[in-house]
Amino acid sequence: MFDGKVAVVTGSARGIGRATAELLAAGGAKVVINDLDEEAAWMAATEIAGETVVAAGNLTRPGVAERLVKTAVDSWGRLDIVVNNAGYTLDAPIHKMTDEDFQAMLDIHTVAPFRVLRAAAPYLREPAKQERAQGCEVLRKVVNVSSMAAYGNAGQANYSSAKAGLIGLTKTLAREWGPFKVCVNAVAYGLIDTRLTAPKTETTVIDVEGRTVQVGVPEQMRSMMSELVPLGRPGTPQEAAGGVAFLCSPWSDYVTGQVLNVGGGVPMGMTA
User: Fold this and answer.
1) pLDDT at position 141, please?
2) In this predicted structure, what is the pLDDT of residue 210?
3) CA dihedral 7, 252, 122, 25 (to 10 degrees)
4) Given CB 3.0 to 4.6 Å as the disulfide criterion, which of 70, 81, 104, 194 pairs with 15?
5) What percent of the chain has pLDDT over 70?
6) Radius of gyration from C-alpha coordinates of the chain
7) Is residue 267, in this structure, part of any structural domain at all?
8) pLDDT at position 270 over 50
């Protein structure tokens, strides 16, 4: 399905990003693995069957997004698919949330995808001009990973705002890049089994450039969330990646500017 395609997947050393990279590679794509954790990125690259290269780094830092795109083009001469997946959570009620924690979520979930797509723009848009002159049509794909928290979720004012902003970016680029045959869509996840939604304990932490960040969901809240899912359980990273793969595939060639909710049927907020 993805033979000859070159894909960039951010945050692809673990979880949904890793499962997405595996699906794309299994379909024949060449994949750039990106993660904040360079060691984990190299491990993923060696374990995933298929052609991969690594471009590790913090996407909120200047120049990293540009280096990521350059790695794809230098390695394989083209770019066909961009999946903006990298991110984490910093939960708190708004009256206890710091400016720094609010900004951090905007930086990784909205600003970083913007920078990646700005860097990717020439390689996604320009080929369409030559293809149009030749009378052919080639579809390229962007999938931005949002969340059903974008529709509002208590304790996540920062994360919800950032993921809602990503939906706005998605719909805007779908309009701007449609004439260049680039389909731009988003997936919005509900409860998926990853490090970010694991039962919260003292050990459910991640390191963000020396800062220890507590992640996970309190067991009681996690149980309540599972009960709200009509399918009765959290999704797996592989099930989550299926939504991304669909939006990257030829099956979605006439789909753009859309948000695909992948939440086991759970209703949250205004989704139209």
Assistant:
1) 98
2) 72
3) 10
4) 194
5) 92
6) 18
7) no
8) no
Q: Is residue 151 annotated as a catalytic residue, yes or no?
A: no
CATH number at residue 124: 3.40.50.720
Look at residue 223 and tell me if it is in a domain. no
- β-strand partners of 262: 189
Residue 249 within any structural domain of the chain:
yes
Q: Considering 123, 159, 189, 254, which one is annotated as catalytic?
A: 159
**What percentage of the chain carries pLDDT values higher than 90?**
79
Look up residue 156 and give its amino acid.
Q
* Residue 42 resides in a domain: yes
d(CA 25, CA 154): 37
**Position with higher pLDDT, 215 vs 183:** 183
Q: Which residues contact 126 (CB under 8 A, 6 or more apart)?
A: none
Q: Is the pLDDT of residue 37 over 90?
A: yes
Mean of the per-residue pLDDT values of the chain: 92
Domains: count for the chain: 1
pLDDT (0 to 100) of residue 221: 66
Which of 60-69, 209-218, 230-239 holds the top average pLDDT? 60-69
pTM over 0.90: yes
Of residues 3, 13, 18, the one with CA closest to residue 36: 13
Q: Yes or no: say if 246 and 226 are a contact pair by the CB < 8 Å rule.
A: no
